[in-house]
Design goal:
Elements lengths: L19 H16 L4 H10 L12 H11 L2
Length: 74
């Protein structure tokens, strides 16, 4: 197989294998986007309704979600 430029490796920006928390968050976000909506308020409401909390165990807020996405490099 010949690779042409530009080649994109889907994991090229990973610094580590995702943690169980990151896998759960990603799967839940996919579900929220599919069923609840794409607006930030929809995401926060969807995560909290599914009891997938912020890393500190608290319910998500817009600020905590933005901070976590920045930390994760999203």
């Amino acid at each position: 197989m010949t690779t042409t430029w530009p080649y994109l490796d889907v994991h090229q920006s990973r610094t580590h294998e995702p943690t169980p928390y990151e896998y759960k968050l990603a799967a839940t976000l996919e579900e929220v986007f599919t069923k609840d909506g794409h607006e930030l308020a929809d995401v926060i409401r969807g995560l909290n309704a599914r009891q997938v909390h912020a890393p500190d165990g608290a319910p998500w807020t817009e600020d905590s979600f933005r901070a976590e996405m920045q930390r994760l490099g999203a």
